[in-house]
Design brief:
Blueprint: H1 2-11, E1 13-15, H2 26-53, H3 60-89, E2 93-95, H4 96-129, H5 134-137, H6 140-158, H7 160-166, H8 183-186, H9 195-228, H10 233-241, H11 244-266, H12 272-297, H13 299-315
Antiparallel strand pairs: 1-2
Helix pairs in contact: 2-3, 2-12, 2-13, 3-4, 3-12, 4-6, 4-7, 4-9, 4-11, 11-12, 12-13
Membrane topology: Multi-pass membrane protein
Pfam families: 7tm_4
Domain G-protein coupled receptors family 1 profile: 43-294
Length: 316
Amino acid sequence: MGAENNESLDLLSVFLTGIPGLEAQHGWLSIPFFIMYMIAIAGNSLIMAAVWANSALHEPMYLFLSMLAISEVGVSVSTLPTVMGILWFDAYRIDFAGCLAQMFFIHTFSGMESGVLLAMSYDRFVAIYNPLRYTAILTLPRIISMGLGITLKSVALMAPLPILLKQLPYCHINILSHSYCLHSDLIQLPCADTRLNSILGLAIVLATFGLDSLLIVVSYGLILYTVMGIASGEGRRKALNTCVSHICAVLIYYVPMIGVSVMHRVAKHASPVVHTLMSSIYLFVPPVLNPIIYSVKTRPIQQGIASLFSRKKGLF
């Protein structure tokens, strides 16, 4: 039975969905999607390059920012082939192994993004609560260890998902509801009991996004408590101002995710276009907006990016 199942999986195709009802406009729709991808990949790549090329940016805050940029590039690159393939070439078909690989990378990089946002909230708490020992607490080896821990946690949690899905039998037309492969979509396809997959998926969501968001809220509760203890109003304002970019990044990441969850429960009969667009927002919007926000709000990042271009001019 296992050999037969593996053989059938090798031949199994999965069919993705574009934007329902707007198939005739895919050519035009590809323009804003392509622009978003270019902004996300180029913007986050610039931040990574600026941080690594400029020794003045080798501080905890900016090293965590470069980790966030890596995870966001990963999310964008993971969805780009199938989304643009559908919009440009009407390429709706994807083989099952490729779909499982895409699902793994999307969820892994998304989990890393959540973990890095939590690490950044800890960074802001240490910077405000104990500024004199900030660099002594967040040393480079400790930051690297945190980055590796976030990566290994995300990989370890997501690895069982494709393995379990591969063991199940598939015996009907396999059509997904998005332009990319997600676990919540794939567990609807097998003609077998998927309760174990559903329970594991819920446990992973709680262990990553649920726990991370709770700890971020706790971190900001401690930050506010610390800020309220600062005597001068100017000191309180400066302390909170250092958190603005991170707060925006957290809201941009978690609000669309919560919105999608609410939509699936309270607006099941809404237009398929609305569901598709809402489900895409939480994957596409954070990688586009975060590099813009950090570039606008953070002067050292502006200077780092400017120095990259000035170096390039000097080479010609």
